[in-house]
Amino acid sequence: MGSTKWTPSIPSGATVEVSVIDTTTYLTKLDGALVVDPVYPGYEVMKIPSFSFLIHHLPSSSRVLFDLGLRKNWRTHLSPHLLREITALPFNINCEKDVADILTENGVSPDSINAVVFSHHHWDHVGDTTRFPSTTRLVTGPGYKEKYLPGWPADPKAVETTSDLYQGRETVEIDFEAGASSSSCLAIEGCQAYDYFGDGSFYLLNATGHTTGHLNALVRTTTAEAPEGDTFLLLGGDTAHHCSVLRPSVYCPFPATFSPAPGNDDLNSSCPSKRYTSIHRASNQSSSTAATVTSFCKLPEFNPYDEEIAVAKQTLDKIVPLDGADNILTVFAHDDSLMDVIDFFPKTANNWKTDGWKRQGHWRFLAPLKVDE
């Protein structure tokens, strides 16, 4: 990948089994200006998925879902205020199944899900929790309940949340400020973290900015004793909607040659990176290396989705070092660049490093760009 490698400081711990679920939620004909700045030729119109993640903690026999995509009955069960808002948005919305359906089809009972962690409250992440038993608790970030609950129709004026998702079940906010009073609270490379199972296998990260209480997660996929050493998945939620806003970076700069070439399924393919640095927004800077260590795009300054854009940028900056680590694979909730790279549920993602997913997928976001051959 890049010419430099570094390893972030993360405490040792156990692993969980993790699977990436294609929720069948897709936003199509999406205006690229909503997710990237600048909009290079090739980024004008996008189609993005919405992922959920099944985390299985074997020692406690606990199953946790991180995000749920969109609910299948969204046209009839979202608030009328929200329906008016999202049907006017400049993209199409498709959803064929609830995550509960996908679990059942693959032999996992929704009754076995102990908790659902919401990265945030947006409609394309919270799914339909009524498909799970009342014993399935909801886990959210700090400030979530005060700002977004009880939801519609319990609150007739509520726009973005629906009360049926929360009624009759426990909703728990993660407290990142417990400090020394809780052994579960720590910091990972400047990110406030909460050790969910208490054994270093599944960390929730404070990632506010996109919304109040927005969460990321760091999932340990192999341990130091494994041939590949400690490895992790970074579940990025909506900290970004496109990998171009955090790559390249000083932690993983452009190499002189991409191998494989972005978007090429032949792992032996290659192409010079100058094909892309020549169109990079930093290509005119006096520094000859600026385009190799500066993200291709920025978060759009005036998009309608980030509640606090300045805070969202700070959160993005905090995860750039994690994304650049050789032993961490970042998977944002809407990362279309990984669709043809990773294995989806019911397969697990724990062997991602051995299977070469990062090598194949890290620069794949460049594939749609129109560049000179």
Automatic annotation (TrEMBL):
Which parts of the chain are coiled coil?
A: none
Origin: domain of life? Eukaryota
Domain called Metallo-beta-lactamase: residue spans: 50-158
Checking SUPFAM superfamilies in the record gives: Metallo-hydrolase/oxidoreductase
InterPro entries the UniProt entry points to = MBL_superfamily_lactonases (IPR051013), Metallo-B-lactamas (IPR001279), RibonucZ/Hydroxyglut_hydro (IPR036866)
Asked if Zinc is a keyword of the record, the answer is yes
Keywords on record: Hydrolase, Metal-binding, Zinc
The family line of this record is: Belongs to the metallo-beta-lactamase superfamily.
Q: What is this protein called?
A: Metallo-beta-lactamase domain-containing protein
